[in-house]
Design a protein that fits this description.
This protein is mostly helical. Helix content is about 75%, strand content about 0%. The chain contains 5 helices and no strands. It is found in: Cytoplasm, Cytosol; Nucleus; Perikaryon; Presynapse.
Length: about 130
């Protein structure tokens, strides 16, 4: 019953404001608003601190898992890949010989000749004579 009375009292006070009645001026309204803002700021700081602690605990667990299974952090992995890509390219304008697949490179001319000979075998006689000259 007391809650109903309080609700009705609050509702009638608000109804008077909605109907165009004079709002009651609270002399301490500015002070209360500042206190409310300060309380909100304090709650936000506590929330951020709590989340920072939770994230630190999670990171500790993640690191234990990485250590157990020999995994690397995403940032470490990307840094290693970037370093590996930059390393062979530093002093050279051409790609390293390791990167050239087997069968390419110096032996190229011999392969072209054998391919050309193979193609010539299937051409009609007059065309073969033209290419051999």
């Amino acid at each position: 019953d007391q809650t109903r009375v309080l609700l009705c009292a609050g509702a009638t006070k608000d109804m008077g404001k909605m109907l165009g009645g004079e709002e009651e001026k609270d002399p301490d309204a500015q002070k209360k608003e500042e206190e409310r803002q300060e309380a909100l700021r304090q709650q936000e700081e506590e929330r951020k601190a709590k989340h920072a602690r939770m994230e630190a605990e999670r990171e500790k667990v993640r690191q234990q898992i990485r250590d157990k299974y020999g995994l690397k952090k995403k940032e470490e992995k990307e840094a290693e890949e970037k370093a590996a890509l930059e390393q062979p390219c530093e002093g050279s304008l051409t790609r390293p010989k390791k990167a050239i697949p087997a069968g390419c490179g110096d032996e190229e001319e011999e392969e072209e000749e054998s391919i050309l000979d193979t193609v010539l075998k299937y051409l009609p006689g007059p065309l073969q004579d033209m290419f051999k000259k």
